[in-house]
Amino acid sequence: MKKLSRRSFLASTSLATAAVALPVPVDLEKGKKNVFIHHVYFWLKNPKSEADRAKLMEGLEALSAVPTIKMCHIGTPADTSRGVIDSSYAVSWLCFFKNKEEEEVYQTHPIHLKFIADCSHLWDKVIVYDSEGPKR
Amino acid sequence: MKKLSRRSFLASTSLATAAVALPVPVDLEKGKKNVFIHHVYFWLKNPKSEADRAKLMEGLEALSAVPTIKMCHIGTPADTSRGVIDSSYAVSWLCFFKNKEEEEVYQTHPIHLKFIADCSHLWDKVIVYDSEGPKR
């Protein structure tokens, strides 16, 4: 288990040079511990349209080029069904940023504005959860 | 930007040997592309209790020892406030697993059962989003 705690940062910074080409979620080079997580869930206007889902995922693929994104992942609901699980959304978009400022750069980046212009007609609802940590 | 796509996996697998000690979210050694993302948001029974929030985060810290967790992160709401953002939760718990089977191991692991026994009295509501990808 690799956890984004101060402990694992300290343990891993010595390998920072080897890590720059890997999908690491944080700024290992500077040994900083904060990570800003932006997780967006999309519900489609046409929830049964696989074509619309594919278009949205294609848009997210293009969106992933925003340079302040440290790591991102495009997902769809997993095949799990306990009572607390919400699997009603169509697409999950998870991004890691170094901090709030870099997420703000993403929000107004031309690639993001193009994504909204190209794809916002596809979704009916969006929920965003932004989190940061560890803050202890 | 490091994206969990087939492309970046292929690009990064040659560095797998150097990567094993880093907080990488996927099984680079085997070059597999799937990742199972389990994201849980907790709302406290006493939302203003910093002590309860700290207890929950301490419980999650212990929970992070479940061996099938590839990477995890304990977060609190970021200081963002656009209309689509839900910042009403108290704690975010994000875990990466190799696949659904490894997440099922986590669900029934003694460490997880102990976490539920120790901490479930603290929360009022939980929403879980499980996602997998890329599936394209």
Notes on the structure:
2 copies of one chain form a homodimer. By secondary structure, chain A is an alpha+beta fold. Chain A has one domain: Alpha-Beta Plaits (2-Layer Sandwich), CATH 3.30.70.100. In chain A, 32% of the residues lie in helices and 27% in strands. In chain A, strands 3-4-2-5 form a 4-stranded antiparallel beta sheet. In chain A, 36% of the residues are buried.
Which secondary structure elements does this structure contain, and how are they paired or packed?
2 copies of one chain form a homodimer.
Chain A (H helix, E strand, L loop, with lengths): L1 E2 L2 H7 L3 H4 L15 E10 L5 H14 L7 E7 L13 E7 L2 H9 L1 H10 L3 E11 L3
Antiparallel strand pairs in A: 2-4, 2-5, 3-4
Radius of gyration of chain A: 16 Å
What's the number of domains of chain A? 1
Instruction: Based on Cα principal axes, name the global outline of chain A.
Output: globular
Of all chain pairs, the largest interface belongs to: A-B, 63 and 63 residues
For this structure, what is the CATH class of chain A?
Alpha Beta
